[in-house]
Every structure is written in structure tokens, then in C-alpha cells.
User: Which sequence fits this backbone?
């Protein structure tokens, strides 16, 4: 999973909520072990400043999220995405890092609460269709 974030804006509550929903309803709690955070607008960093140094001053919540992401963080300079028609080293590095942490995963099934078990659901459908009588009801009519 590639989590795309911008260095030009703050990480908002929406991004944290999205990660929580992806964990709880789509991929499962271990998805961050197979993720890489991609930071766009690396040109916003000061000359010679490392991404790690820039992120070190971020909030505790973002630090906790980044610790869970096994693939780490990668900064992409949008202006250098393509160099002379060739794929840049930063994009190749991103693909290499993503390949290193990726594993086959399946989507979580959303479990809907069932009122009946498998057999009792079948019995309930038969009762509703008039094929059976509910338990405890009077015997067959003459």
C-alpha cells in the first residue's frame, strides 16, 4: 500500500481516519507492515535537508504512524519525476522499496451480524414460505 502525503500541507485527521478504516475494514491491522509513505513536493525541503530530519519535528501521532510503516518514507520531487524521458532514480527507489515490503494480501470480508445460524436461517425461510410450521405451534389442522 502506498500512502501518499504532501510535504506542503499538514497531515490532517482525515488521513489518520483513512488509515484506520483501511486497517479495520479493508486490509486488516497488519497492512502498515506492507506499506510505504510517499511524500510529494520534496522540493519543499531546505537544500540538503533529509526527509528524516524534517519528519523528526512532526507530531507524536504521525511519528507513531511512521513507526508502524515497515517500508518507511520516500520523498518524491514532483519536478524530477521524469528525466529526459527516463524513469528517475527516485521512482525506481520507490518501486524497489514497495516490492521489498509487499506480500500477497486479501481483502477483509465485512461480517454482517446474522440473526440465525446456517441451519436455522434455512428453517426460517421455509417457515416464511409456508413449508414448515414454527416450533411450539399447534399440530396440523384437520
Assistant:
Amino acid at each position: 500500500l502506498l500512502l501518499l502525503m504532501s510535504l506542503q500541507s499538514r497531515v490532517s485527521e482525515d488521513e489518520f481516519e483513512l488509515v484506520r478504516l483501511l486497517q479495520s475494514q479493508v486490509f486488516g491491522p497488519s497492512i502498515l507492515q506492507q506499506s510505504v509513505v510517499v511524500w510529494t513536493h520534496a522540493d519543499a525541503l531546505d537544500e540538503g535537508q533529509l526527509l528524516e530530519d524534517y519528519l523528526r519535528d512532526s507530531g507524536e501521532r504521525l511519528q507513531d504512524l511512521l513507526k508502524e510503516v515497515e517500508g518507511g518514507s520516500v520523498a518524491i520531487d514532483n519536478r524530477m519525476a521524469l528525466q529526459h524521458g527516463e524513469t528517475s532514480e527516485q521512482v525506481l527507489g520507490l518501486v524497489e522499496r514497495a516490492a521489498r515490503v509487499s506480500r500477497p494480501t486479501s481483502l477483509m470480508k465485512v461480517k454482517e451480524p446474522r440473526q440465525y445460524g446456517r441451519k436455522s436461517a434455512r428453517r426460517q425461510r421455509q417457515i416464511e414460505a409456508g413449508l414448515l410450521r414454527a416450533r411450539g405451534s399447534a399440530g396440523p389442522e384437520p
Remarks:
- The longest strand covers residues 2-6.
- Helices lie at 13-27, 51-56, 60-68, 89-101, 118-128.
- The two ends are 66 Å apart (CA to CA).
